[in-house]
Amino acid sequence: MTHDSFPAQVQRAVDALDDYKANDISILDVRGLSAATDFFIIASGSSDLHVRSMGGRIIEDLEKEEISPHHAEGLIGGRWVLLDYVDFVIHIFHPLAREHYGLERLWSDAPLVEVGSGT
């Protein structure tokens, strides 16, 4: 399974994260494991400011394509930004928060695709 095999909106979100230099981008396919969403997109920023700014920019970029979040959290704090688009949820973490919460471990039975590491 590759990044290109996911729905177009998921691919667009991943491309936007990569454009904004997100680190360690991964997609968890939780279809059949969660009734809440189909995909988790997980990425890290290099600082609280980077996490916050990526969250805001992702919202702006996807809204240009008429893809609006149902819910957003963490845009002020910057340790963990959650953007819920119903069919997919974007989690942007400060590296220490990502390690602490370990979504990849919590959802270890979900297929995982590592997309990129940013630059």
Walk me through the structure.
- Helix 1 crosses helix 2 (48-64).
- 34% of the residues lie in helices and 27% in strands.
- It contains 4 helices and 6 strands, in the order H-E-E-H-E-E-E-H-H-E.
- It has a single domain, classed as Beta Polymerase, domain 2, CATH 3.30.460.
- The relative contact order is 0.25.
- It has helices spanning 8-19, 48-64, 95-101, 103-106, and strands at 23-29, 39-44, 71-73, 80-84, 88-93, 112-116.
- With 119 residues, the chain is α+β, with helices and mostly antiparallel strands.
- The protein has a 6-stranded mixed sheet with strand order 3-4-5-2-1-6.
- The two termini are 23 Å apart.
- The radius of gyration is 13 Å and the shape is globular.
